[in-house]
Amino acid sequence: MIDVHKWFGTVHAVQGLTMSVQPGECVGFLGPNGAGKTTSLEMIEGLQQPTSGTIRLLGKAWDQDAPWLRQQIGLALQETRFEGLVTIEETVDLFRSFYDSPLSTAEVLETVRLSSVRKLRVNGLSGGQRQRLALAVGLVGRPQILFLDEPTSGLDPQSRKALWGILAEFRAAGRTIVLTTHYMDEVEQLCSRILVVNHGKVIANGTASELRAQLGGRQLIEVGTSPGLTQEQAKAFPGVVGVSRQDDRFQLMVDDARPTLAAIVAWASRPGQHLLHLAVRETSLDDVFIGLTRSGGEKPTT
Amino acid sequence: MTRTSRSQFVELFLFRARTLSRDVGTLVWSFLVPAVLTGVLAFAFRPTSPVPTAVGVLAGEGAEALVKKLNTVPELTAVVISEPEGRRLLSRGRLSALVGPGSPHRLIFDPTQERARAARFQVLLGLEEEDHGSVGPRATDETIDLPGARYVDFLLPGIIGMQLMMTTSFMVGGHLATMRTTMLLKRLAASPVSPPLYYLALGAVRLVFSFLETIYFTAIGVVAFGLPMPTHPMSLLAFGAISSLSWTMVFVVLGLRARSPEGYNGISSLITTIMIFASGVFFPAERFPEMLQPFLGLLPLTALNSGLRMLMLDGASLLELGPQILVLLAWTVIPLLLPRRAMAWT
Question: Which of A95, A97, A165, B91 has the most CB atoms less than 10 A away?
């Protein structure tokens, strides 16, 4: 995608998105609701036309090679509800008939662990089974690229892990995955690269560790005091490389928490100072995500 | 009632009222359809000056003189007509009685029809004036109970026409509107599926069901209501199939343009209700003024009902339904001429 824009009336949903995905990669689109993730994905999938910009998929353009491209991709849209009175097997058979060299229905149902319930009607399926059916429909055409829009949204941890296992197998076969998700653990588990999107723009692009490094520290100290610290006081603790504020607490980014913690405890032991909250943990992608999207792409102040 | 249960009641009431008031289909059914219906029916059954009773005088010696005599009776219109054509018009309710010249005259009518009994009276009145002072009966009654002249004979083809329209509406248009809401249509669009084949499959399923519906309702008519067996059953099936294809195309466009199943229900119920009452399902479309007839004739349901009545009551074959088939084919082709965007899935 090169400088892709999408307008819906007066709303500039995607603002000059530029990105590329290499064969065999798993790239995750992260972003808050309304950030433009689904619109971007649907433009790559050929379901929406960009207002301007260039999109090439496997070297081809949708306006010239749509039938060929449709054969090469598989996808699971956000919130597709398959026909409830049709069985799992019949649904897969239907979609299988669209492809030139599909997998057998039995094979794809085995892959997504739905063989034992293949005769069940869709309206009798659990949320996890429905998502696996959506994945089966996406996989049945032997796609080179799989697009997944929030594939594990609303699933319990067990169902999510089952789905991750299937996707890991797909990726292990050298295929490419592009997905959108809200779950940080999902992108960490599955994706080799993460694109953080906000207000229709890519505001960060890299591996999970690169994004953590962008945040400015490996560890995060949360501190709440009475009376409250000022921004300047928080920044002045030793080893602090970044500071952000959430309600009445400060989050201090550090590479090594020990000297900073010692300084905070010493400061709190002074007369009139009270330590209300102190916690330390490894920085997570959640922190990266919140830090980036809250500040509209700016790194926390240092 | 405690305060909590009162507020629960208020919230439950508001919940239901909000969903109802935001459902386009409900609003259309509740307010627009009854208003339109009342207007259409009031227009169709508006007060008019009395229409003369039409009778046919069978061609033969003395027929012209008899017509002249009968036309002197107020509220009676007589025309010379051949017996087969006269019986056909009698069975379609276009004529109320047939009078044969001679002495005594033959008076052919269906005593179960109120208008026919009134016509008999008026004819006898006319003959009395003709034959003043003569002895013996002026006319011998030849009562008939021809299937085709009863209300059920008029109604059943109209019901079949209405059924073919309504079932296509929910089998095709309603289905597409739901598929659009559930994103299934978008999911299909994202697959290498052929849209023409998709529509073809949709039409083929509709065709199979239209055969079943036509056979089923015709059988009910014949077995339960004594309707005549259609002379050309294959023509009847073929005509039902042609109409189903045109309904399919019409409702594909409506279904694809609707933003929700509720929106679809609203617009489709408005359109179908107007046609049910304007296209001669329950009463002849001829009740509407002469100036509207050309427009009503172009409605697909009017063409369908008219064709079905010819096939089921007049013994016509498909070859005699040129104008009706043309109208239906036009409704099949018009959606294909719309911009591609109108048929887009996404």
Answer: A95
